[in-house]
Amino acid sequence: MIALLTRDIRLAMRAGGGFGLGLSFFLIVVVLVPFGVGPQSALLSKIAPGILWLGALLACLLSLDRIFALDWEDGSLDLLATSPLPMEGIVSVKALAHWLTTGLPLVLVAPVLGVLLNLPEAGFLWLTLSLALGTPALSVIGTFGAALTVGLKRGGLLLSLLVLPLYVPTLIFGAEMARRGAEGFDITTPLLLLAGITCGTIALLPFASAAVLRVNLR
Amino acid sequence: MSLNSLWEYANPKKFIQTTDRVLPWVAWSAALTLLVGLVWGFFFTPDDYRQGSTVKIIYLHVPAALMAINAWLMMLVTSLVWIVRRHHVSALAARAAAPVGMIMTVIALLTGAIWGQPMWGTWWAWDPRLTSFLILFLFYLGYIALWEAIENDDTAADLTSILCLVGSVFALLSRYAVNFWNQGLHQGASLSLDKEENVADVFWYPLLVAMAGFVLLFIALVLMRTRTEIRARRMRALLARERMGA
Amino acid sequence: MMPDLGKYADAVLSSYAVSLVLLALIVWLSLRRSKRIKKELEDIESKVKSHG
């Protein structure tokens, strides 16, 4: 399993693996927002937590179809399926690799981009924490979506359509936590709910993703 | 009816025979009930003293909203039956119900917007209920799109039923998340949507008839569409066999 | 016969119109597909039978 993890990460880091694309996308979204809504710093600092969450979510979405697509094309997914590893384990490792190569970098650059959007000082810690807590859920949910559409040609658009509604609760609690943190309110409730969603999806969703993948590999 | 005899209708042929027999009755009673309920509601109910004549929209809005949710529940149950007992009719019934449920969601959203305009002065408010219905609509879209995208019938049935299960959990989560989220935005709800509360009898009886009409219409549509899906599936199987034999 | 809808006539009438059109649309689409598939299936079944 660890070998699989390191292999996935290495593949993603290599040129053409898509590593960095998500980050660049995140950067561009954040840079474009002031062009869309105007440069007033009061407005920007008010919407900064929401924009940063949305940007991270979209950047995450962008790289989802790579989770299984390459392995599907060269047949190594079939090999993995016949290996002694349980399918649930494979799916979890894939989600973890996706988080390490996409989610974690997003979490790390989010505070830097927060400066661009004039994020209030109190918000930096909570924004980073909320993203760190929420992005694993995004990766796990996204892995489920990627498993659903793995065999399809032009599955990318369908993948977004399937995954985005599933992202709603995570986005709501994550952005709410970041916003409350930025405005100096109590963040306990959204923090607990966000953590609950992340733990719940990590614990349960791999079973659904594995079932889906088995159907697709049939 | 005992459970044992219910499974008999899981046989596609039997299902088609029964549907052929039952469908005209269901369809006509649906049309009749719907007509009675809507005509009663539109022509023979008084105006509400606060809402004026807009209260007449209730005979469309509430039944449509009810069926939008019930259609998803039905899809959830039939998906479970497909996963557990692998009856093709069950999976196809879920497929048949989805577009009907989506139309009901659209009707509920549109009538709600038209109703909201004069009452609250806005077409759309990010009220928890409205938002949940919008999210439900997105779930319907994704579910239908997944059915359309996959060619193999059994694979499509498997994947969509798992999506339906996972989607149900997330739809429920979203419902609570949205409640929480709006509370967080505007301290306390500014709009009350609890129409069901204290509905006077004059409005309640025609509403009941209209709801019965929508339920019957839904059943009729699902029976007919499931029959169509069974035939389409048989047709694809025959064509495939033809190609293999030729 | 037409009830007096007062100043909300537009809202009430348009919501009835929109809903009835949508309901008619789904009924019509379902009926059309039902007829088409039934006919196609019958064609294919007769063809398969004639093949033996």
Average residue-wise pLDDT of chain C:
84
Query: What's the tally of helices of chain B?
Result: 7
Number of separate domains of chain B:
1
Identify the overall geometry of chain C: rod-shaped
The SSE order of chain C reads: H
User: How many alpha or pi helices of chain C?
Assistant: 1
| Low-confidence segments of chain C | none
Measured by DSSP, the beta-strand proportion of chain C falls in under 5%
- SS-based structural class of chain B? mainly alpha
Summarize the model shown.
With 218 residues, chain A is an all-alpha fold. Chain A is 83% helix and 0% strand. At the A-B interface, helix 8 and helix 9 of A face helix 5 and helix 6 of B.
Task: Give an overview of the whole structure.
The complex is a heterotrimer of chains A (218), B (246) and C (52). Chain A is built from 9 helices and no strands. Chain A is mainly α. Chain A has one domain. The longest helix of chain A is centred in the middle third of the chain and has 30 residues. Chain B is mainly alpha-helical and 246 residues long. Helix content of chain B is 81%, strand content 0%. In chain B, helix 3 crosses helix 6 and helix 4 runs antiparallel to helix 5. The N and C termini of chain B lie far apart (46 Å). About 6% of the residues of chain B have low confidence. Chain C has a domain of 25 residues. The mean pLDDT of chain C is 84. Chains B and C meet through helix 2, helix 3, helix 4 and helix 7 of B and helix 1 of C.
